[in-house]
């Protein structure tokens, strides 16, 4: 449920003008430059395990004792997921802060 301050903030802001501003478009481009490579990396890394285990025997070799490369690769996916999550949360907080600053500038520009 939005607070009164939040609803006034949304009601008094011309978001169409904010979306058309140069700074906001630059922010959107920065977000795309961040999220698209990260998503591609995630999908390639994620689908590499089932594809490599299904169509090749390269991961069946022993890596450490009885542990095969498939197990190491599967564990690496957990590590990769946590790392990407941490990076995404930190970067998205930065983007949110920039968006708030842009909206605030637009509100102050209207006055």
UniProtKB/TrEMBL annotation:
<keyword id="KW-1133">Transmembrane helix</keyword>
<protein>
    <submittedName>
        <fullName>Membrane protein</fullName>
    </submittedName>
</protein>
<keyword id="KW-0812">Transmembrane</keyword>
<dbReference type="Pfam" id="PF04341">
    <property type="entry name" value="DUF485"/>
</dbReference>
<feature type="transmembrane region" description="Helical">
    <location>
        <begin position="67"/>
        <end position="89"/>
    </location>
</feature>
<dbReference type="InterPro" id="IPR007436">
    <property type="entry name" value="DUF485"/>
</dbReference>
<feature type="transmembrane region" description="Helical">
    <location>
        <begin position="34"/>
        <end position="55"/>
    </location>
</feature>
<keyword id="KW-0472">Membrane</keyword>
């Amino acid at each position: 449920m939005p607070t009164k301050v939040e609803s006034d903030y949304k009601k008094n802001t011309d978001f169409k003008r904010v979306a058309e501003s140069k700074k906001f478009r630059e922010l959107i481009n920065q977000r795309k430059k961040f999220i698209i490579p990260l998503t591609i990396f995630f999908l390639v890394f994620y689908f590499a395990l089932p594809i490599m285990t299904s169509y090749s025997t390269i991961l069946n070799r022993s890596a450490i004792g009885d542990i095969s490369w498939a197990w190491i690769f599967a564990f690496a996916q957990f590590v990769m997921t946590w790392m990407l999550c941490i990076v995404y949360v930190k970067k998205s907080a930065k983007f949110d802060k920039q968006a708030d600053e842009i909206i605030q500038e637009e509100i102050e520009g209207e006055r």
